[in-house]
Design a protein that fits this description.
It contains 5 helices and 31 strands. It has about 600 residues and is mainly β.
């Protein structure tokens, strides 16, 4: 869990002197942290016009890509989407038609892990924009602080909190192509020692294809209480229930019965402390789910545990020490199968795995904060395969207030999932964790008195011991070598015009689904008058593998428009037009993406946010 951040203002996604992040678990300037971190702020999220945070990440974070299959809804099982890769790492190497198993990028909600306890992957349909204040993405391994699944990177969803005393409320509604309807209500307050957030959201669509309808209902509540000047207690609960239909690949027989009915919950209780030279937190968390699939599959899963850490400011440095504990697993069955086939498939299964870890990280500043050196070590003990050491080190050099040079070496790992160990015929109870080493160098520079900020990053990632299916069993036989370049630029042309651009180039010695070779995104934000804003974005994707054997790639260009007008301070009218060029393309093979589609909405608000 990140430390308190009432005074931490996130103004820009790349401005060198303004961005503070919690990527080291304590609030620090991004200039001082060796890791490369992208911040997608609330303005970026609002200007996108999306109700789910996943496509926003795919645009604003270089080297990050998310799979999609339709107008809304990612689903699970065969035909699912929402898989994410960072620098080509995140999902298994797929064979033709194989669904992605996305377990190498860790999702966090306010700093604690969130994944499906049996399969080990995140649930993309749960990450709605309505209650998210900003997203911090660590591009590269962060296992030293966050453990398993942080092998390729970390996506930390930071929820909203009322910063000022008083009350704020809003109601949004939008309607568009394919009978798509969205509406949400939000309420935030801060009074005395109390603060709270409540939000409700609904989304539904008929989908751009037959049998691709989707329904999602979500609720979120968070309440905090200041016990004293030094201690803060808070708790939250997020519930999501959705039903997603799978239209199947083009040309397949029409089957209206392909659906997934999913219920997910996330809750946590945290006690945070902050003193003049020390801060930390203790978080208890519990993630749970109930999945029903059209083919008779049913599962209940959990991921629970606690995170405990404390940081100490020493001289011109900081040391963090922490302990993590996770218990994940669940129950799965398929009553549509006879007992012989059930046993063959590994059903019913009732398994839990626990993992305990201790870690420490030291960051020391030298020469009046012109140089920061960071070293860290983690030891993780898994109930199945035993222990694993994870080191990390890096430096940040700041010769001036406009220049930052960074270099880092870090190890990432991923523990085998319950599915890989115990479920379905390929399972293997003797699997070991996947491992990788990452080497990167970056240069951040501010130009034109800070109006233009740029970042250039190069990296080499080497993975070993990867879990691959050989014949009818999972084995630790895979490896990869990925290397690439990432560029970011943010230019404040004037008070009313802003241009943001990012580009990534990725070389992979082993092709991976959902990892384009070239990825370019640019958005131009224009504010002609005070109550009108307009944003035009362009995304170019080249050499995206949608199948690896035989190789099938896609190239496409997306142009999107989002505009908003506020006739009154309490009333906003907005318009989103996606795929304006009416591109024909696929991200999941056999699932053509929607043509040009439009959403028109309104937002009413009271109070101050």
């Amino acid at each position: 869990m990140c430390a308190w951040s009432e005074n931490a203002e996130i103004k820009d996604s790349v401005a060198l002197n303004e961005v503070v992040v919690t990527g080291s678990k304590v609030i620090r300037s991004a200039r001082n942290i060796p890791s490369t971190i992208s911040v997608v702020n609330q303005q970026n999220i609002d200007n996108s016009g999306y109700s789910n945070v996943m496509p926003v990440l795919s645009q604003y974070v270089p080297g990050l890509f998310v799979t999609e299959r339709g107008i809304a809804g990612y689903g699970v099982a065969n035909g699912s989407a929402g898989a994410i890769t960072i620098r080509g790492i995140g999902s298994t190497v797929g064979k033709a038609g194989d669904p992605l198993t996305n377990t190498q990028v860790l999702f966090l909600i306010d700093g604690h892990p969130q994944f499906m306890g049996l399969m080990g992957h995140h649930l993309a349909d749960s990450y709605l924009t309505d209650n998210i204040e900003r997203v911090e993405v660590i591009r590269g391994p962060a296992s030293v602080l966050y453990g398993s699944n942080a092998m390729g990177g970390v996506v930390n969803l930071i929820t909203k909190k009322q910063q000022q005393k008083g009350y704020f409320g809003s109601f949004d509604m939008a309607y568009g192509s394919y009978n798509t309807l969205r509406y949400s209500a939000n309420s935030m307050m801060k009074s005395g020692k109390w603060n709270g957030v409540v939000s409700l959201e609904h989304e539904q669509t008929d989908g751009a294809r037959t049998n691709s309808q989707y329904h999602n209902n979500s609720g979120y509540a968070k309440i905090g209480y200041a016990l004293s000047d030094h201690f803060n207690l808070s708790g939250d609960l997020n519930l999501t229930k959705y039903k997603a239909y799978d239209p199947d690949t083009v040309g397949a027989p029409v089957n209206p019965a392909k659906w997934a009915d999913i219920s997910r919950g996330v809750t946590s209780l945290s006690l945070e402390n902050r003193f003049q030279h020390s801060s930390g937190s203790m978080v208890l968390f519990w993630n749970f789910g109930n999945h029903h699939i059209y083919d008779g599959y049913h599962s209940r899963d959990h991921c629970s545990g606690f995170n405990l850490y404390q940081s100490f400011d020493l001289f011109q440095g900081n040391i963090i020490a922490g302990i993590d504990y996770e218990n994940y697993g669940g129950f799965a069955e398929n009553n549509s199968l006879n007992s012989f086939v059930q046993n063959l498939m590994g059903f019913p299964v009732r398994k839990s795995i626990h993992e305990t870890a201790g870690y420490t990280s030291l960051q020391q500043d030298f020469f009046g904060r012109y140089l920061s050196v960071n070293v860290g070590i983690r030891y993780s003990e898994n109930s199945v395969y035993g222990g694993e050491w994870i080191p990390q080190g890096g430096v940040s050099v700041r010769p001036s207030q406009f220049t930052v040079l960074k270099a880092s070496v870090s190890k990432g790992f991923r523990s085998p999932t319950v599915k890989e160990l115990y479920m379905f015929p390929p399972h293997n109870e003797n699997l070991q964790p996947e491992k990788m080493m990452n080497y990167e160098v970056s240069w951040q520079q501010a130009w034109l008195q800070g109006r233009l900020s740029t970042e250039l990053t190069t990296f080499i990632a080497k993975g070993t011991n990867l879990i691959r299916q050989v014949a009818m069993q999972y084995l630790n036989t895979g490896s990869f070598l990925n290397k690439g370049i990432e560029l970011m630029g943010d230019y404040k042309v004037s008070e009313r015009v802003r241009l943001t651009v990012n580009y990534s180039y990725l070389y992979m010695d082993t092709p991976v689904l959902a990892a384009p070779k070239h990825q370019l995104f640019g958005t131009l934000q224009y504010k002609p008058i005070n109550n009108v804003t307009a944003g035009l974005s362009v995304q170019r994707i080249e050499d995206l593998y949608i199948q690896t054997t035989p190789a099938v790639t896609q190239n496409y260009t997306l142009v999107n428009l989002h505009a908003a007008c506020k006739p009154y301070s309490f009333w906003e009218i907005n318009l989103s037009v996606n795929n304006m060029l009416n591109q024909k393309y696929q991200i999941n093979k056999g699932y053509p993406m929607p043509p040009t589609n439009v959403m028109v909405g309104m937002k009413f608000s009271i109070g101050k946010s």
